[in-house]
Design goal:
The complex is a heterodimer of chains A (164) and B (376). Chain A folds into two domains: 38 residues; 93 residues, K homology (KH) domain (GMP Synthetase, Chain A, domain 3, 2-Layer Sandwich), CATH 3.30.300.20. Helices cover 38% and strands 20% of the residues of chain A. Chain A is built from five helices and five strands, in the order H-E-E-E-H-E-H-E-H-H. The mean pLDDT of chain A is 95. Chain B has two domains: 160 residues, FAD/NAD(P)-binding domain, CATH 3.50.50; 210 residues, no CATH class. In chain B, strand 4 and strand 5 form a beta hairpin. In chain B, 36% of the residues are buried. The model of chain B has no long low-confidence stretch (mean pLDDT 95). Classes of the chains: A alpha+beta (164), B alpha/beta (376). The interface between A and B is medium-sized, with 14 and 15 residues.
């Protein structure tokens, strides 16, 4: 289905009943090696590991790499959707995401160091026939609506339970 | 009369609109300072004068406690007796109560809290740091005033509307009016819900006509931090997306100035006004604090400048939606004989400005008059 129809249908469904807008996503996994984890989400399965420097065999990307990939891909997808909504055409789109991480946080070598990224930089390259101002508008709309960017930039309530 | 001006505004407040824009039917500003901005006292006088000039039958000091439907109109219960009326115009505005985020309840008791309704002047607050939440007109004005009082000031910035006070030598609100943007009708506005929720622009009315944007605040030594999202363990958690919020506001201002320039060129104003200007991007600090420890004593007072809500608790007619907003079509409310005036973008973008009420009122009262003529 073309995106424009999909967006219109979704808008209709949600205005009929806001409950239609609520989605639940889930993922589950098992530690199968020293740092190797088998993850499953929906119908998709993949592995996560660490490089040797962090104890793993590098059979797959590590969690923070997946996190950056998640942000980069979410940005790209949000560009697609918002280019459609704003009527802005583009030819190519690439994203590069970088994050600075001080490993002392993870290892607990220094309590004042946060375990996660202290800074993240997203570099988007868009080519297309429109004026630069239009792509700046598109970027502003994407930054307002990208789910993973929101997840990175704003606090999220997280609860953790323990069973066994 | 003019109750909110008497009781719910701070001492140094002036109108955002220049005096020459103070025009009501039969009453215009005719003072010596048309390009200046009225003080609260002057606004109260202006409204009182209008009551005399228009000879409206005002019953002052009377509180309406309930409006209910009756067979042929409405029962209005007041502190001074019942009124039975075939039609009612709700003109209580959209700013009856300050809006405060729910997490304000989790702020430690050691930190003072005040809203824009309760704030009068810096002397009222204890010494020590102030955290101002919100960077719209109220937020930036109070930030500047409190910073000048010598206190450390931090402003938590969410979405905001950035405007220069003057553009190409004219008041920015002259442009809004002259270019026709303010006259844009509600049924022509692309996203009406959004337009009705726009925060008041970062403007202040001063004799110097200074621009009070975030760069100006930063130059005064005000600390800017991201939107306040939650309280956890006595700490305020702030957004890391401040840069994006700045770019968005800058972009919108740029688009508006482009619109002004296009209009000036098309209508032949280019010669009369100064050359086009563009303003420096909002400066982003190298790093911004993502948390504030509310238990450390650094912040003595929180000033909530997070907007307002209407209060329709007295309106016992099913015309209020799930979000507490009145259901109306250009001021014609969803109940026969019931009308509203003075709500944001009621019929035009200028609906809530003093110069915008007349056009809206003529159209709404027209509808009301026809309604009365058909139902007597």
């Amino acid at each position: 289905m073309p995106l424009s129809s999909l967006i219109a249908d979704t808008r209709k469904a949600v205005s009929e009943d806001p409950a239609n807008a609520q989605a639940l996503f889930a993922a589950q996994g098992t530690l199968v090696g020293v740092t190797e984890v088998d993850m499953r989400t929906g119908e998709h399965s993949f592995k996560v590991d660490e490089p040797p420097a962090l104890g793993g065999a590098d059979v797959a990307a590590n969690p923070v790499q997946y996190a950056l990939a998640s942000l980069g891909s979410c940005q790209a997808i949000t560009y697609r959707f918002w280019a459609e909504q704003l009527g802005i055409g583009f030819d190519t789109l690439t994203v590069r995401v970088e994050g600075d991480l001080d490993i002392r946080g993870f290892f607990g070598f220094d309590d004042s160091v946060r375990p996660g990224f202290s800074a993240v930089r997203v570099e988007v390259t868009v080519t297309g026939p429109e004026a630069p101002g239009r792509y700046r508008e598109l970027a502003a709309a994407v930054d307002q609506h990208c789910p993973v960017l929101d997840l990175f930039a704003n606090p999220v309530p997280v609860t953790r339970t323990l069973a066994g | 009369m003019a109750n909110s001006w008497r009781r719910e505004r701070w001492d140094s407040l002036r109108l955002l609109t220049p005096n020459w824009q103070s025009r009501l039917p039969g009453l215009r500003y005719e003072g010596p300072d048309p390009d200046g901005y009225m003080t609260v006292g002057e606004v109260i006088e202006f409204i009182e004068r209008f009551a005399k000039v228009s000879r409206a039958p005002v019953r002052a000091g009377v509180n309406v406690t309930s409006v209910r439907q009756a067979d042929d109109g409405y029962h209005v219960t007041t502190s001074d007796g019942e009124i039975h009326s075939r039609a009612v115009v709700i003109a209580s505005g959209a700013c009856n109560r300050p809006a405060q985020p729910p997490f304000s309840a989790a702020v430690p008791a050691s930190v003072g809290q005040v809203t824009s309704f309760g704030y009068r002047d810096p002397a009222q607050l204890p010494e020590g740091g102030v955290l101002i939440v919100g960077a719209s007109a109220t937020g930036v004005q109070l930030a500047a005033e409190l910073r000048r009082s010598g206190r450390p000031v931090t402003v938590s910035v969410g979405e905001h509307v950035r405007l220069p006070r003057t553009y190409r030598g004219r008041d920015v609100l002259w442009w809004m009016d002259a270019s026709g943007i303010w006259g844009q009708r509600y049924d022509e506005v692309e996203d009406l819900t959004r337009a009705r929720r726009l925060p008041s622009p970062q403007l202040v009315g001063t004799p110097e006509r200074t621009t009070l944007d975030l760069n100006a605040l930063a130059s005064m030594g005000v600390e800017l931090v991201g939107r306040w999202a939650a309280v956890r363990d006595g700490r305020a958690l702030l957004s890391g997306g401040l840069r994006n919020v700045f770019s968005l506001a800058d972009l919108k201002m740029e688009r508006l100035l482009d619109t002004f320039d296009e209009w000036a060129k098309a209508e032949g104003y280019d010669a009369e006004v100064g050359p086009p200007e563009r303003f420096a991007a909002t400066r982003v600090p190298e790093s911004t604090r993502l948390q504030l420890d509310l238990r450390s004593g650094e912040i003595a007072t929180i000033v909530w400048a997070t907007g307002f809500r209407p209060d329709y608790g007295w309106l016992h007619v099913p015309v209020v939606d799930a979000k507490g907003q009145l259901k109306h079509e250009g001021g014609v409310v969803d109940s026969a004989g019931l009308y509203a005036l003075g709500l944001p973008v009621l019929r035009r973008r200028k609906s809530t400005f003093i110069c915008g009420i007349e056009d809206d009122a003529r159209e709404v009262i027209d509808h009301l008059a026809r309604y009365l003529a058909m139902h007597w």
